[in-house]
Amino acid sequence: MNIWISVGRIFFAIGIAGVGVLHFFYPGIRPVIIPELTGIPSNLSFIAYFIAMLLIGAGFLIAIGKKYSSLSLLMGILFFLLFLFGHLPTFLSAGSFNNYWVNLNKILALSGGFLVVSTISPPKPGHRLMELLAKIGPWGKYLFAIMLYNFAIGHFNNLEGVSRLVPKYIPFPQFWTFLGGVTLMGSAISIFSNYKVKTILLLLGLNLFIWLLLLHFYYAINFPQWQEGENFIGVLTCLSFCGTALVISQTGSKSST
How many domains does the chain have? Predict the structure, then answer.
């Protein structure tokens, strides 16, 4: 199999499994999965552990490349339902622009990532329902692109605020913030227009991996307890997005170079 597909699949899987593992270290359900459930009663904690094992199991099967196609497809649909009936209503009820916006986009991109992974080796013919659902898989890259577009707009509209997230040891934070927005926007346009998807998404994957090392690891190491482990969520989702970008670079277009 193509090395970039394998690396991307494993990166995505590690990120998903890692989010599952965090449920054993922090209370409730991680907000990136379902918002407003970090404080669930102790007698319902089994729900968080079930979600944890589901994510860990899915990540494990995807990482080893065994029986993951149908599972990834179903997980992609499940995450999209979490977006529609969990994150979107919470975001809209909070009014105007709010802190739920980041996880709203992340859950959408993770849904897209699962769908993209399901297209690596589509479910085998024989089960009519799965064959029908498999037609949804190619749409995963567009869900991922929506996240890229929205985060790019966030970079441009709040340049000063986002630039404060650039670690202090990196000079010219506003320049890098603007360049990051251009990178995200360009990648979204590439996917939507089917223009040079292979090259641009491969570069995006490299870019996200650099952000993972220079930015997300920095905050996870220095501020591990911030908002009950949200900096670790940043590391893991960035790794999953890096993996998604790498897989799309090899599967997202049959004609782009």
Answer: 1
DSSP 8-state assignment for residue 27: S
Handedness of CA 22, 34, 112, 191 (dihedral sign): negative
Six token digits for residue 114 = 């699962």
Would you say residue 256 lies in a domain?
no
**Cα 80 from Cα 227, distance rounded (Å):** 25
Per-residue confidence in pLDDT tens, the chain, 257 aa: 699 999 999 999 999 999 999 999 998 999 999 998 888 887 788 999 999 999 999 999 999 999 899 999 999 999 999 999 999 999 999 887 778 999 999 999 999 999 999 999 876 666 777 778 888 999 999 999 999 999 999 999 999 999 999 999 999 999 999 999 999 999 999 999 999 999 999 999 999 999 999 999 999 999 998 988 999 999 999 999 999 999 999 997 654 43
Q: Is residue 114 part of a domain?
A: yes
Q: Can you give the residue range of the structural domain that contains 138?
A: 3-251
Tell whether 172 is covered by a domain: yes
